[in-house]
Amino acid sequence: MATTIKVSVELRDRINRDAEANGVTAAGFIEKLLDGYERRQRMEAFGLAVRGADDLYWDEFSDWDAALASGDDVT
Fold first, then answer.
1. 28 close to 19: Cβ distance less than 8 angstroms
2. Eight-class DSSP state of 22
3. Is there a contact between 29 and 18 (Cβ–Cβ < 8 Å)?
4. Helical H runs in the chain?
5. Which tens digit of pLDDT belongs to each residue from 24-38?
């Protein structure tokens, strides 16, 4: 299903120019931009979560890291 969105002529022309330069449709170009934006948002949330992890988390992380590195069966 297609829909129309209102954008300025300048923005439309930029989208079409960059889409053509990348060998994709305008819709494909916008989808790639949105995919990249959403990925950056997920990575930022992940980074915040890691930076906010407490010592208990890092202790458990270290235990698992050592167990997996040893090659022992951890199942």
1. yes
2. T
3. yes
4. 9-21, 26-51, 55-70
5. 999 999 999 999 999
